[in-house]
Specification:
Elements: H1 3-6, H2 13-26, H3 30-45, H4 51-63, H5 68-110, H6 115-144, H7 148-164, H8 169-184, H9 209-224, H10 229-243, H11 249-261, H12 269-307, H13 312-340, H14 344-359, H15 365-383
């Protein structure tokens, strides 16, 4: 029997779909914040998802390629409602931000760039660092508790992420194996881990000409880049600016800014880039190619995680990967802070955002983001020259 059979859903599919629509429309802060919101809302507040299922989803999202937050949303949809739930959750999570970047892409081309966006991003980027820091703290204290081994893994992965400025997938798997070995002391060929890591290969989507190039490139981005926007941005830059010359440096920076000032997954910037390169068809194919691999991988791997979920070995393996994932998330906060906190006002904005969320537990994050955007518009002209 699977976990979902033993613990029937206490919610309807339409309720979960509505939640992910709202998260996709209002969830700022990138993958670190988004996975934190899902834990807070679905595990702690509503009790729809068990802690064990959330941890397995987070572990799978870390060891499989693709955008972290979207994969976790798909897995949580699968927990009780299988493929239909995974499809509804993933689509609902991505749709709002996709529509937003389409509108911004149209405005960008129609009005010759978005100079005001630099001012908005100046404030929003700083506030997002504060939001991410609070989310990372909550994830760490909730999942690692007082386990010294897990905290050691957390520290190592945070340091590696800061030093390398990337997320190294094999370290997540190594962390899982380490905790498994320490806790279970397995006998040779015990088969404890089972089929924990199925990673299917995915065919490229066919379309002629430039659309084919776009689709193949973004499918590779979705299928071979691990973790979060932190990992995918350098990959995108290398292909879009350096290799194919589809965008200029400034256009690419604007595309990343669009991802940061819009809610939902950071990787939705692929829709904006696709629109700039090839209009509406380019946007649709770029977004589809980016998210389809992680959807298929998650749906195909989820039954294995659920079937073997209560085995002691797999629980230990997941705990190790979870500690590594949270460490990498914490490290990415530092890396992104180095890029976003460029002067004293941005540092103060980040500290203020974190302090507000720490003190006012029920303060909605979009309120903090909106306030930071207004402050950015006011402060940016004083510290920069257009």
């Amino acid at each position: 029997m699977t976990a979902s059979t033993l613990t029937p859903a206490t919610y309807r599919l339409w309720q979960l779909t509505r939640y992910f629509l709202k998260l996709g429309a209002l969830g700022f802060g990138g993958p670190v914040a988004l996975v934190g919101y899902m834990h807070r809302d679905l595990v702690e507040r509503r009790g729809w998802i068990a802690e064990a299922d959330y941890k397995k989803g987070l572990a799978l999202a870390q060891i499989a390629p693709g955008p972290l937050a979207a994969q976790l949303a798909i897995y949580l949809g699968y927990v009780h409602y299988r493929v239909l739930g995974a499809t509804a959750a993933g689509f609902a999570f991505v749709l709002p931000s996709f529509l937003m970047v389409l509108a911004l892409g149209w405005a960008y081309q129609a009005f010759g760039g978005l100079p005001w966006m630099q001012a908005v991003f100046y404030g929003v980027g700083a506030a997002v660092i504060g939001i991410m820091a609070i989310s990372a703290h909550k994830l760490a204290t909730k999942n690692l508790k007082s386990d010294r081994l897990l905290w050691a893994i957390f520290a190592v992965l945070a340091l590696v992420t800061i030093v390398t400025q990337s997320e190294i997938a094999w370290l997540f798997i190594t962390a899982g194996l380490l905790v498994w070995l320490v806790r279970c002391r397995p006998r040779p060929w015990s088969g404890t881990l089972g089929a924990a890591l199925p990673l299917p290969l995915l065919p490229a989507v066919y379309d002629p000409g430039l659309l084919l190039q776009l689709t193949v490139f973004f499918a590779k981005a979705g299928a071979f880049v691990f973790g979060s926007g932190l990992a995918i941005v350098p990959f995108l830059y290398g292909g879009i600016v350096s290799e194919h010359h589809w965008l200029t440096d400034k256009q690419f920076v604007d595309a990343v800014a669009v991802a940061m000032i819009t809610p939902g997954p950071v990787v939705i910037t692929t829709g904006f880039i696709g629109y700039l390169v090839a209009g509406l068809p380019g946007a649709c194919l770029a977004a589809l190619a980016t998210f389809l691999p992680c959807y298929l991988i998650t749906v195909l791997a989820a039954p294995h995680f659920k079937k073997h979920g209560k085995r002691t070995g797999l629980v230990a393996f997941v705990d190790g990967i979870t500690a590594a994932a949270i460490g990498a998330i914490a490290g990415s906060v530092v890396v992104l802070a180095q890029r976003s906190l460029t002067d004293l006002p941005t540092v103060l904005l980040a500290i203020a955002a974190a302090a507000l969320l720490w003190k006012l537990k029920k303060l909605p994050e979009p309120v903090v983001v909106a306030g930071a955007a207004l402050l950015g518009v006011a402060l940016f002209p004083l510290t920069h020259h257009f």
